[in-house]
Specification:
This protein is α/β, with parallel strands linked by helices. About 45% of the residues lie in helices and about 15% in strands. Helix 1 links the parallel strand 1 and strand 2. The protein is globular and about 50 Å long.
């Protein structure tokens, strides 16, 4: 890979399983990647080291997606590093589970702050700063269709993300920028596996007709498609990458 001009990509939540896989895939696709993280700095730096070892270009930047100042700084650092922002992928998210009847507003507000407010903050910056021909890719979840108990705050946040995606796709008319969401089904990441018993994990892995959990690379491949030339006619859509977990 040359050190000349290249397209720049931002991946938030890049210290997580899916975010890290997405960042590595986009680097392989030829993008210079800024890996944004709110915690787990070591994992983000490890992903950066892996990208660089493979000949790619990447840096890690600490940023809380719910904080407009952090996100503004993230976009500025990306422009300083690569000169252009061509792809924005917002993988940052949290998934604490609690029954609605408990009325845990502190937990609800925390989920909404990261998953929905954070998406709005990232979308606002992306709408202003993504180059013509660029791609904005958000993350929803296939669990929206399931309405599982205890997923209330999480599903509410992701339903909101899908609404924002559809609206922004229309607002960017004439800019040649696509706005889509990827909605994974069960993926074997720390976020998904946390708090689940082996029996629950086994049961969930059998739910899709393909009879396995998704892997981070499965999702990274979908993002790569949306971010690449072949995905240019897909706009305002939610791609449910879930192995048939319908």
């Amino acid at each position: 890979m040359t050190n000349g001009p290249m397209k720049g990509a931002i991946v938030t939540g890049a210290s997580g399983g899916i975010g890290g896989a997405v960042a590595k895939r986009l680097a392989r696709d030829g993008f210079g990647v800024v890996l944004s993280y709110a915690g787990k700095a070591a994992k983000a730096e490890e992903a950066v080291a892996g990208i660089r070892a493979a000949g790619g270009r990447a840096i890690a930047v600490s940023a809380d997606v719910a904080d407009p100042k952090d996100v503004d700084r993230l976009f500025k650092q990306t422009l300083e590093q690569f000169g252009t922002i061509d792809v924005v992928v917002n993988c940052a998210g949290i998934m604490p589970l609690r029954p609605i009847a408990e009325g845990d507003l502190q937990l609800f507000d925390k989920v909404i702050a990261t998953n929905l407010r954070g998406s709005f903050v990232v979308l606002a910056q992306a709408a202003r700063q993504t180059s013509a021909g660029g791609r904005i890719i958000m993350f929803s979840s296939s669990v929206i269709a399931k309405a599982f108990p205890t997923y209330g705050p999480y599903i509410a946040s992701k339903a909101g993300v899908e609404g924002l995606v559809h609206v922004l796709a229309n607002e960017l008319r004439g800019r040649n920028i696509t706005v889509n969401a990827v909605a994974p089904g069960p993926v074997a990441t720390e976020l998904f596996l946390a708090g689940k018993s082996d029996a629950q994990i086994e049961q969930l892995s059998k739910r899709p007709p393909l009879e396995r959990l998704g892997q981070p690379d499965d999702i990274a491949g979908v993002v790569s498609f949306l971010a690449g030339p072949a995905g240019g006619w897909v706009n305002g859509q939610v791609l449910r990458a879930n192995g048939g977990f319908a």
